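Technical annex B. To support the medicinal chemistry partners, we prepared a structural model of the target in complex with magnesium ion, based solely on the information shown next.
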Amino acid sequence: RQANIPLEHGDKHSKSTGRNDRLKTYPQLFDKAFPYFREPVENGCFSLDARRQFRHDSSQLRVFSPPADWKRCLFDLRSGYGDMIKRDETKKEYLDDLLRWIMCNKHKFMSRQKLETTSDSKTLKHGTEQADIPNVFDSLNTDFICWRGLLTRLLCIPYENREDLLVAVVRFRGTYFMCEFDTERKKQEVQERTPKQEEMCAWGFKFEQYVTADKSSGARDTKLRVNTNTAFCSVARSRLGSHSIVFGAEVDCQDGNSKRGNVYVELKTSRVIESQRQYENFCKFKLIKWWAQSFLIGIPRIVCGFRDDNGVVQTLQNYPVHEIPAMVKACVRQPWKPSVCFNFLEAFLQFVKANITTDDERCVYLFRWQPGSDVICQRQGDDPEFYFLPDWFTSWDAW
Ligand code: A3P
Ligand code: MG
Ligand code: MG
């Protein structure tokens, strides 16, 4: 393993990393065959409770429980808004909960060879006794660790024309940890939100309450206070080209009818579509994000509640994720292409590897992008603003 290799360009803050420090993002550059993407496999899960505390269980997983009539719903998303308990969004969470999950699941990151030599060829399954597992290891045997949300954003970049992106990356023990940060533009947008816009941001959570039920009792309770601290997260492992990735994803609910194991449903709300023009925009700008988000973790369907301007959901619609690209192709003149999205993501991951030459938890690299420009890489060093790997993780006694 390489450690602390000095860079040609010195080690002061914000230095460009050299010749390969720009990545173009035009769709035309990535318009080739779909790259190898291994079907994501769920590797574990965790929950965040009403106080946003990590729990290594599926206690917050809910079950999809739609009404019988999908054409006449009348779900008032404004109901109970005043009592809603909102997560403190000023508190940055970085990768902390994902790192907590990793620390609970050390054995899932051991190389097979090491496991076999140390544990007497015992098969290691979920719930294996910690005593069977070797105490020390030197790497996670994974190239990238991040949240699914970042991968979704990256997939959409070749077609994105509004939102910019800022990603901090640290290479530690051979693994690239990637964490999204709010850009100045995003911070300003959040600050300038009107109370009405604030309220609209919460509608999606109220919708979840109308169409999901408690796992054990099977009961729906739309009178309960909505608490946006709670979450259920699935952790998946996959591979894109030569890059192995472990990523966490907040998942809305489980499909109660599915015969297969854990099959999830993604829930969305959107304004009712009243014209061809609105439908085209929906296909062009919204469905790309919905598709990317669900496809990444192998979620087979999305259920959307179409609401009016007063926040009343009137109809529900089912969108099989694998049918979305064809739907878009049928109505948009220059449709987005899944292959472009994935080829770009692969190129981005390659770009990260090519630019980060040090293996040092204190050295942060920033990848910045804004619409119309290239992705730019800067070595940021140990700038406290972007330093996101906590000590309790880097000084974990398993290393
Ligand atoms: P909608 O997408 O139905 O509006 P997700 O759909 O990804 O599970 O997110 C659940 C809800 O969180 C969203 O529901 C929305 O209410 C809120 N949300 C997600 N991303 C957001 C963002 N970037 N800004 C504001 N609210 C957001
Ligand atoms: Mg969600
Ligand atoms: Mg959702």
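Notes passed to the chemistry partners:
The first strand starts at residue 15 and ends at 16.
Residues 252, 266-268 surround magnesium ion (ligand 3) (CB under 6 Å).
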